[in-house]
Amino acid sequence: MAAGNDGALPVVDLTPFFTGDEGGIARATEAVREACRTHGFFRAVNHGVPPELMARALELSAAFFALPDEEKIKVRPAEGAKAPPLPAGYARQPAHSADKNEYVLLFDPKLGFNVYPAEPAGFRDAVEECFARLTRLGLLVQEILNECMGLPPGFLKSYNSDRSFDSMVALHYFPATEEEEENGLSEHEDGNCVTFVFQDGVGGLEVLKDGEWVPVEPVEASIIVNIGDVIQVMTNNKLKSATHRVVRKPGVHRHSFAFFFTIHGDKWVEPLPEFTEKIGEAPRYRGFLYKDYQQLRMRNKTHPPSRPEDVVHITHYAI
C-alpha cells in the first residue's frame, strides 16, 4: 500500500523505493505530493532506518537527560573551539523562554563540531548512525520531491549537494506543571528543506490543519516527515511548510529526535519558473540568500521579540 491515513496524517510506505517496484514508486510519489500539498506533513513507514536503532537512540538520549545538570553542561564546545552559528552539544532553553526543553545539537560528524557525553556508553555510536541513516533518507525524499515538483531529473540533487548545513537534535521536554503553561515548543514552521522526527510514546507533537490543531500520535518505527520554508518558496506555495508545535503533558518527560535536511547558506532561494512564469503565475516571494533568512530566524531565538507578531517568518519575503 503506498498511502493511507492514521486519522491525523497521511501515511506513506516507502518500500517500493527499496524494492524497485515501479508501479509502487509512482503511487508512493503521488501520495507524497498530495500529503505535501494538503498537510505539509506525512508519516513514513518502511523508510530504511532500523526501528531498533531509533529505539536505542531514544533510550540513550533519555539516560543522558536524566543525568545531573552539572554533568550535562560538560557537553559543550571548549572555549575558542571552531563552531557553527549555534554551538554543538548540550543546551537548555533560558528560563524566560516560552519553550520548555533541553537538547543536544549535532552536525555531520565529519565536520568535527560535535561534542559527545561520556555517559551513557554507546550514545555517540547511536547518534552518528542515526545521522548517517537520516542523511540517506533525506537524499531519497529529495529525489521523491524532485519528481513531485516536476523538475528536471537531478535538479534538487545538484542544487542541494552540500551536506554541511544539516543538523540533528536530541530533545527532552519537561513535564507540564501547574505553574507553567504546557508549551514545549512554540508554534512555528521549519526554515529548512525537509525535517524528520522520531519520538517516544508520550506524544505532544501537533500540526495545524485548516485552523485546527491535530495531534500526531506516536506510532512505533515510523518517522514524521515535514517540508520546510525552502520548498514552500521554491514551489510558490504549492507545497506547504506547515505550522506545528509541541505541547507538554503533566507527569511525563517527552524525548524525540529531529533531523534538519537543508541547503548551504550561500544558496539563493526563490520561486522556480516551473511554479511561476511557466504556468502564468506571479511569484509570491522575492528571492533571498538562505543564510540571511537563517540569521533572522536565529535572532528570533537569541533575542525573542516581545510581540509575537514581530517574530520573523517566511512571510518576511512575501510579495
UniProtKB/TrEMBL annotation:
Cofactor names: L-ascorbate
Keyword Ribonucleoprotein found: no
Gene Ontology terms, MF aspect: metal ion binding; oxidoreductase activity
Keyword Metal-binding applies: yes
Keyword annotations of the record: Iron, Metal-binding, Oxidoreductase
InterPro entries given in the database record: DIOX_N, IPNS-like_FE2OG_OXY, IPNS-like_sf, Iron_ascorbate_oxido_reductase, Oxoglu/Fe-dep_dioxygenase_dom
Location of the Fe2OG dioxygenase domain: 164-263
Pfam families: 2OG-FeII_Oxy, DIOX_N
Protein family membership: Belongs to the iron/ascorbate-dependent oxidoreductase family.
Name recorded for this polypeptide: Fe2OG dioxygenase domain-containing protein
Record organism: Eleusine coracana subsp. coracana
